[in-house]
């Protein structure tokens, strides 16, 4: 198990806003990303010591991160048993997907009603060009899933950003922490 943590630590960068962040925030973001990417199996025990070693931090920020992730519903805590990765049923994932579709539709409508500046148009065109370039390689064995995931997340968050609705943005950020697509999804689309 520790080898999997080390391997994941080498390839996963925390996804954080461009503001100053604490070590705890970085650990939370990294563990959240690992959970959403399926780095841990359903009900897999999350050991503080192994996680701290993989992340190169003390146990304190790991402990804080696990508490936060339990509040978000990504991990489950049991007294005297510790934390485990939560498993998500297909039904749960489909409900999350429908929620995100609804938020996306509202965000797109509000953004369209607000209109597009040239800078916004250029941002979307650049993201779409990046997506098209990645999709051209989707059937290649070395397709870059992480580049696609990053572009896709930036594209959808840009829609919400340009909707200019703080509550929608907060809800969209929260909903992006809900597992929607499993790691093998790209095979389904090819």
Helices and strands in order:
Elements: H1 2-11, H2 23-36, E1 45-46, H3 48-55, H4 59-72, E2 75-78, E3 82-85, H5 90-114, H6 118-135, H7 145-163, H8 166-175, H9 185-189
Antiparallel strand pairs: 1-3, 2-3
Helix pairs in contact: 1-3, 2-4, 3-4, 5-7, 5-8, 6-7, 7-8
Description:
The longest helix has 25 residues, at 90-114. Residues 1-20 and 182-190 have low confidence and may be disordered. The chain contains nine helices and three strands; from the N terminus they run H-H-E-H-H-E-E-H-H-H-H-H. With 190 residues, it is mainly alpha-helical. Helix 2 (23-36) packs across helix 4 (59-72) and helix 3 (48-55) crosses helix 4. It has helices at 2-11, 23-36, 48-55, 59-72, 90-114, 118-135, 145-163, 166-175, 185-189, and strands at 45-46, 75-78, 82-85. It is 65% helix and 5% strand.
């Amino acid at each position: 198990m520790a080898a999997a943590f080390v391997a994941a630590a080498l390839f996963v960068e925390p996804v954080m806003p461009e503001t100053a962040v604490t070590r705890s925030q970085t650990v939370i973001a990294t563990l959240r990303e690992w959970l959403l990417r399926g780095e841990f199996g359903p009900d897999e025990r999350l050991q503080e010591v192994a996680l701290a070693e993989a992340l190169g931090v003390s146990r304190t920020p790991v402990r804080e991160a696990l508490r936060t992730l339990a509040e978000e519903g990504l991990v489950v805590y049991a007294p005297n048993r510790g934390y485990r990765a939560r498993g998500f049923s297909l039904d749960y994932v489909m409900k999350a997907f429908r929620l995100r579709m609804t938020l996306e539709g509202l965000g797109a409508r509000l953004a369209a009603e607000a209109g597009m500046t040239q800078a916004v148009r250029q941002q979307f065109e650049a993201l779409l060009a990046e997506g098209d370039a990645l999709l051209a390689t989707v059937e290649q064995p070395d397709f870059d899933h992480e580049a696609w995931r990053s572009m896709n997340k930036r594209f959808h968050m840009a829609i919400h950003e340009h909707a200019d609705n703080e509550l929608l943005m907060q809800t969209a950020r929260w909903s992006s922490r809900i597992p929607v697509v499993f790691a093998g999804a790209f095979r389904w689309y090819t």
